[in-house]
Amino acid sequence: MLGSLLTEEIDEVLSRNILGRLGCNDGVKTYVIPINYIYDGKCIIAHSVEGLKIKMMRKNNAVCFEVDEITNQTNWKSVIVWGTYHEITSERERYEAMKLFVNKTLKLKISKTAHTPELNENREHPESLLSVKPVIFRILIDEKTGRYETEHADEYHMHL
Predict the structure, then answer these.
(1) Does residue 104 lie within any of the structural domains?
(2) What is the pLDDT along the chain (160 residues), one digit of tens a residue?
(3) Pairing of strands 30-39, 19-25
(4) How many CB atoms are located within 10 Å of the residue 97 CB?
(5) What is the CATH number of the domain that holds 31?
(6) What is the number of domains present in the chain?
(7) Cβ contacts of residue 24 below 8 Å, gap of 6+?
(8) pTM listed for this prediction
(9) Bridge-based pairing state of the strands 123-124 and 30-39
(10) Cα(112)–Cα(21) distance, rounded to whole angstroms?
C-alpha cells in the first residue's frame, strides 16, 4: 500500500532522525549531500564548515531537504522539505542551536568522524591545527510532504 503521510507523521519522521540529504543549486550545478541535522518543530537546523554547499546556498538560498526511514523495499517512509537557507549569526542563537545538537546527540553513540562542534566559538578539527568556526544555519520550511509504502495496510491510516 502506498500513501501520503499526515503532517503529524511528517513531523515525527523529521524529529526521529538526525541524518538527511540537503539539495542545493547555484544556478548551474545541483549538489546533494548527507548532513546531520535536528528538527525543532519549525525548522531544520544544521552546521557545516565553509565549503561548496555553503557557497552554493549563499548564492541561491532555495533548498530542498530529504529524510528516509527504510525497513526494506516495501516498507519505508520518505519526507521532503522545501525551504530557505538562513545563516544563524547571533552568538546567542548559535549557542542555542548547538545546545539542541548536543542535547540530542548525547543520547546517541557517535563515531570518531561524526561529532558535534563544541559550544565555544572555535572548533578544533582532530587532524588539523587550524581553528574553524562552523557555519550554523537553519532551513526555514516553506513546504513539506511525505510518502510511505507498507505491506501491512492495517498499520497505517487510510487516506480518502
Answers:
(1) yes
(2) 999 999 999 999 999 999 999 999 999 999 999 999 999 999 999 999 999 999 999 999 999 999 999 999 999 999 999 999 999 999 999 999 999 888 887 766 554 445 444 444 444 444 444 567 889 999 999 999 999 999 876 555 544 3
(3) antiparallel
(4) 21
(5) 2.30.110.10
(6) 1
(7) 30, 31, 53, 56, 57, 60, 63, 64, 85
(8) 0.79
(9) unpaired
(10) 21
Helix/strand/coil (H/E/C) assignment for every residue in the chain: CEEECCHHHHHHHHHHCCEEEEEEECCCCEEEEEEEEEECCCEEEEEECCCHHHHHHHHCCEEEEEEEEEEECCEEEEEEEEEEEEECCCHHHHHHHHHHHHHHHCCCCCCCCCCCCCCCCCEECCCCCCEECCEEEEEEEEEEEEEEECCCHHHCCCCC
- 160 within some domain: no
Q: What is the identity of the amino acid at 102?
A: V
Which residue, 80, 98, 79, is CA-closest to 138?
98
Position 108: which residue type? L
In a domain, residue 71? The reply is yes
- For residue 69, give its domain range: 2-154
Q: Kindly state whether residue 22 falls inside one of the protein's structural domains.
A: yes
Cβ–Cβ under 8 Å, residues 47 and 101: yes
Kindly state the cell numbers that stand for 53: 554547499
